[in-house]
Each structure stands twice: as structure tokens, then as C-alpha cells.
Amino acid sequence: MSASASQRKTLSISEQLDLVVDVKMKKLKLAAAAKKYGIGYSTAAKILKKEGDLRLCMQVNGNTNRKRKRQSVHKDVNEALTQWFTQACPDGATVTDHVIRQKASQLAVNLEVDFEPSNEELMRWKQANNVSFKKFHGKSTSADHGSANEWVTNVLPQLFRLEL
């Protein structure tokens, strides 16, 4: 093996879409784009052919840092879980890792699939579907409006009187 042998390079979905934009919008030649991204001409041509799949993948889950779109062993359970999750979140339901794991077990039973979700599988599902749990402070859905109104009408005026 020679010293100048190059390593294989795998582009992320966002880099692949950048290549497509360079070729189609910026009118960069395919060979120049391949050289710019450090890949072969035939690889760049394949990326250009699968532009529709790349854009669809970006729209579906938005995780463009992934390099490959791997299919799960339990594809039907994952699809059902994703569908349930997208319906549960806009309704304001509190969804945690434990709830997702329970729902995955329930869906596996309903679909008659031998599947017991592990932490690893949950983590992979969350990464694949671009799911993260963060606490948002000041969310109006979790605010206690009655107590806040009571505090403004009763306690706040007393505090102003004490300062005078």
C-alpha cells in the first residue's frame, strides 16, 4: 500500500446537501465539487442522484449530522413509536424516557413482536428521530395562572406599601 493512499470519507447528510447546492445552484462542476469535499467523482454523482431522498430525510427528522440512514431491526415498532410520539408531544403530554420505553413495550405486544426496549435502543431511536428532552422554563402550559393572579392582586400591593 502506498503512502499517498487516501482514507475513505463519509459525508453527513448536510454535507451531501451542500454538495448538491454547489453543483446545482452555484454551477460548480461535479469533478470540482468532488475534489472540494474530498470524495470520488462517482460518489459525488451518486449523491447527486439521491438528492430527493436526502431532502426527504432532512424534512422528516431534521437530523442532518447523521452519515447513514440505518434501518432498525424492529422497524414497525419504531415507526409506531415515532407516530405516537409526534401525536403526543403537541398535545402537551409529559413524555420521558420511561414513558417512551413503556409505550415501546406496549406497541411491541400489540404488534406481536418479540421486543424489549433497552437504554441503547432508546438512545438510538432518540438520535434517529432528533428527540431531546430539555426543560423549558416559563412555559405557559405549566404555569399556575390562578396563584400568579392571586399573588399580583394580594401580595404585590402589600410589598409596595412596605417600601414606603
TrEMBL record:
Q: Where are the transmembrane segments?
A: none
**Matches recorded under InterPro entries:** CenT-Element_Derived, Homeodomain-like_sf, HTH_CenpB_DNA-bd_dom
Q: Which domain of life is it from?
A: Eukaryota
Q: The HTH CENPB-type domain covers which part of the protein?
A: 65-135
Identify one Pfam family in the record: HTH_Tnp_Tc5
Query: Which Gene Ontology molecular function entries are recorded, alphabetically?
Result: DNA binding
Q: Which GO cellular component terms are attached?
A: nucleus
Presence of the UniProt keyword DNA-binding in the record: yes
Signal peptide segment: none
Q: Which UniProt keywords apply?
A: DNA-binding
Task: State the protein's name.
Answer: HTH CENPB-type domain-containing protein
Q: Which organism is it from?
A: Acanthosepion pharaonis
Species classification: Eukaryota, Metazoa, Spiralia, Lophotrochozoa, Mollusca
